[in-house]
Specification:
The structure is a single chain. This protein is mostly helical. The protein has two domains: about 60-150, no CATH class; about 155-365, MetI-like fold, CATH 1.10.3720. It is about 60% helix and about 10% strand. α5 (about 155-190) packs across α8 (about 225-240).
């Protein structure tokens, strides 16, 4: 029986496709699977952030300016276990010390409900709806990550910011992929003067320090541009700077493969250069390109976060993780209201998840890794 089971297992592996073999190797990587689940959860959050967030990103609560993280109670006044609830909070002004504090109103009780009616929103920009996954009824407020200087819910703004940051990372990497594969393919396959020009352009771009180069390109944008145009401009800027590593990797692979027998056979039967590059050469190391792209996405997200944090990237009313962290630039603000730094944990989780997935893919596609 054991011999039959072993032979069936060997036959299963021998008949499996390359994709299935890569998947079997990938799922053995625990951190890579955790990263994959985390990334799927982040993109799910980005797609349905209007429904998942308790409030709209621009909803202002004047009675909750710089409100701390809401205290969730699980026991009533008689110390009996009950459904989670919060108390009503009000803003108290101390005119003597010029300080505003948020205090809880004793005796109030607002249970946390699911599918609660709240701020109206356009779901995916099409359907008007007012249901949120969880929340409390007015006048109660629920701030899982506290509130900012305008009384806006930081947790809801983090969910909205995740959508922008993840989309910039994905769109920027796709544009970098197009530039890197095209220019790297031309450079590695044809060589000669085209290789020399493309390599000098790559070396020139890589000579500039990243932050000053981003700052210079971002400063060239007119200040009167609308938020949507700024969003696409930042994405294009990150793509124009981030394609060089992929282009060099593609160039090196093509230079090592362009004299192989299958390439010479394709030339012999009259295949065009474009067909040889995109139909024969690139698919032979597509797995390496996927790994490179996966590892490049967190770099794009960190670049957008850095630009927005410095005030030269995305600007309100667009809400990204970098824009949210700009609220925590002041040391005094961070010391008094530390919950404004909580968006950084979203950045850390996203970057770590993509790195774990990239490491898992790199091990899965390498036939000599163990």
């Amino acid at each position: 029986m054991k011999a039959d089971h072993a032979s069936q297992k060997q036959l299963k592996y021998l008949n499996a496709s390359t994709r299935r073999l890569i998947w079997w190797r990938y799922r053995k990587h625990t951190l890579a699977m955790i990263g994959l689940v985390s990334i799927c959860g982040m993109y799910f959050t980005a797609l349905f952030c209007e429904f998942l967030a308790p409030y709209n990103k621009d909803t202002i609560h004047l009675d909750a300016i710089y409100s701390p993280i809401s205290k969730i109670y699980l026991f009533d006044k008689d110390n009996n276990l009950c459904w989670p609830f919060v108390k009503e909070c009000r803003l108290k002004l101390d005119l003597e010390h010029y300080k505003a504090t948020v205090i809880e109103v004793p005796g109030t009780r607002f249970p946390i409900k699911f599918f609660v009616k709240g701020d109206p929103y356009h779901f995916w920009g099409e359907w008007l709806w007012d249901r949120h996954l969880f929340g409390v009824e007015k006048p109660g407020t629920l701030f899982l990550f506290g509130a900012d200087r305008m009384g806006r819910d930081v947790f809801s703004r983090c969910l909205y910011g995740t959508r922008i940051s993840l989309s910039i990372g994905m769109i920027g990497v796709l544009m970098s992929l197009l530039l890197g594969v095209t220019l790297g393919g031309v450079s590695g396959y044809f060589g000669g003067w085209s290789d020399g020009i493309i390599q000098r352009v790559i070396e020139t771009i890589r000579c500039f320090p990243s932050i000053p180069l981003w700052m210079g390109l971002s400063a060239a944008m007119p200040p009167h541009w609308p938020a949507l145009k700024v969003y696409f401009a930042i994405t294009i800027i990150l793509s124009l700077v981030g394609w060089t590593d992929l282009a060099r990797m593609v160039r090196g692979k093509l230079m090592s493969l362009r004299e192989e027998e299958f390439v010479l056979a394709a030339k012999f039967i009259g295949a065009s250069d474009a067909r040889i590059i995109f139909k024969h050469l690139l698919p032979s190391f597509m797995s390496h390109i996927i790994v490179s792209v996966t590892l490049a996405i967190p770099g794009m997200i960190l670049a957008e976060t850095a630009l927005s944090f410095l005030g030269i990237g995305l600007r309100p009313p667009i809400t990204s993780l970098g824009v949210l962290l700009k609220e925590a630039q002041n040391v005094t603000t961070v010391a008094l209201y530390p919950w404004l730094l909580l968006p950084v944990f979203f950045v850390i989780i996203i970057v770590l998840s993509f790195n774990f997935v990239g490491d898992g893919l790199r091990d899965a596609v390498d036939p000599y890794s163990r």
